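Dear U.,

Please find below the material for section 3 of the report. The protein was modelled together with NAP; I have listed the sequence and SMILES used, followed by the predicted complex structure.
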Amino acid sequence: MPKKILLIGNSDGIGAAVTRSLLAQGHQVVGVSRSPSPLGIEGPRHMVLDISDPHYPETLRRLMAEEGPFDTCIFCAAIGSGLHLPDLSQEAKVIDVNFTAMVHTLATLLPGWLKQGQGHFIGLSSLADDFYNTDAPSYTASKAGFSNYLVAMALKLKSQGISITNIRFGFVDTKLPKASWKPLMMTPDQAATYVMRCLTTKPIQLSVPKILGFALYGIRWIQSLRIWLS
Ligand SMILES: NC(=O)c1ccc[n+]([C@@H]2O[C@H](COP(=O)([O-])OP(=O)(O)OC[C@H]3O[C@@H](n4cnc5c(N)ncnc54)[C@H](OP(=O)(O)O)[C@@H]3O)[C@@H](O)[C@H]2O)c1
C-alpha cells in the first residue's frame, strides 16, 4: 500500500537516497530542507525551510494542513560541528537542529496520529550516541538525547498503535562524517535499504553495523573506567 511520507532532510546524503527508494516503490514523498530538492520541480513537493527556525513548528503545521495526513515521517536532518576551542558558537545550533527540531517534528505529528490510532516515526541516529567524543561533543550529545528520547517514546506509544523506530548508523559515505578513520563505511543507498526495511518491520531500534556497535560499546566501557579512576 503506497504511503504518504514526510521526509525531513532529504536534499542530500541518506535522506536523498531514501527519497529515491521511496519514489521507486510508488510512495508519495513531501520533503523539507534548507536547499531545494535535487529532483527539481518535476520531483515531489519540497519545502525549503530551516528546521532550527523558531517558527518551524508553525510552518510544519501549515505544511501538514496542505499536504497531510502523513502515514510516516522519516527524520534524516542533522549537522555536525567539530569543537575548536575557544569557539563554541555552533555547539547549541547542533543540538537545535539534530535533537530539538526532531522533538518539535514528533510533537507536531503525534496529536493527529493519536486520533487516528496509527503512524510511524523513523529517526536517524548514530552508533556514536553512546560514547564521549571530545572532537565533536555536541554531535554525540545530540544523538544521545535523540536515541534516548525516541526509544522512550516508542515504549510509551506502542500500546496506542503508533510506531517509533530509532536507527543507529555507523559510517555512511556522505559529507557529514569528518572522522579520519571510517571503518565499515556504507554507501547512502546501502543505508537507505535499512531505512526501507524498517518501514515495514517497524523495530523500536536498529543498530548497523552491529560489530561497530559492539566496538563502540567497548570504547565507552574503557572511557567509563577512566572516568571512574580519575
Ligand atoms: N553519514 C554518516 O556517517 C552518519 C552516521 C550515523 C548517523 N548519521 C545520521 O544520518 C542522518 C543523515 O545524515 P547524512 O550523512 O545523510 O547527512 P548530510 O548528507 O549532511 O544530509 C543532511 C540533510 O539534512 C538537511 N539539513 C541539515 N540542516 C538542516 C536544517 N537546519 N534545516 C533543514 N534541513 C537541514 C540537509 O539539507 P540542507 O543542507 O539543504 O538543509 C541534508 O538534506 C543524520 O541524522 C546523521 O546524524 C549519519
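For the text of the report, you could mention the following: Helices lie at 13-24, 56-67, 91-116, 137-157, 188-201, 210-229.

Regards,
Y.
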